[in-house]
Amino acid sequence: MGEERVVYRVLVGKLEGKRPLGRPRRRWVDNIRIDLQEVGCGYMDWIGLAQDRDRWRTLVSVCGNELSGSVKCGAFLD
């Protein structure tokens, strides 16, 4: 592979500039994962579950009740 090819330059090149200080920025996906962990549903495949709108709405309503203490959110998938 020639040194002038873009693929080679990407493979062996160094980025210019500096990385920002501090922790990485929180993404939207990270917020959802943290919220599900707080209500006891952090282990589930929430992306696959969100594609089934009816089950996702049921989960959200159950987890909403979890905050008031009336239903265990982790038992949703059982």
Descriptive account of the structure:
This protein is mostly helical. The chain has four helices and no strands.
Largest sheet: none
- The average pLDDT score comes to 75
Uncertain segments are: none
Overall radius of gyration? 21 Å
Helical segment tally?
4
| Principal-axes shape call | elongated
The helix/strand class is mainly alpha
Helix content: 40-55%
| Strand and helix order | HHHH
N-end to C-end Cα span:
55 Å
Let me know the number of strands: 0
Estimated share of beta-strand residues: under 5%
Oligomer: single chain
Put the structure in a nutshell:
By secondary structure, the chain is mostly helical. It is 50% helix and 0% strand.
Question: Which descriptors apply to this entry?
Answer:
0% strand, 4 helices, 78 residues, single chain, mainly alpha, elongated
Topology:
Blueprint: H1 6-12, H2 28-38, H3 46-50, H4 53-68
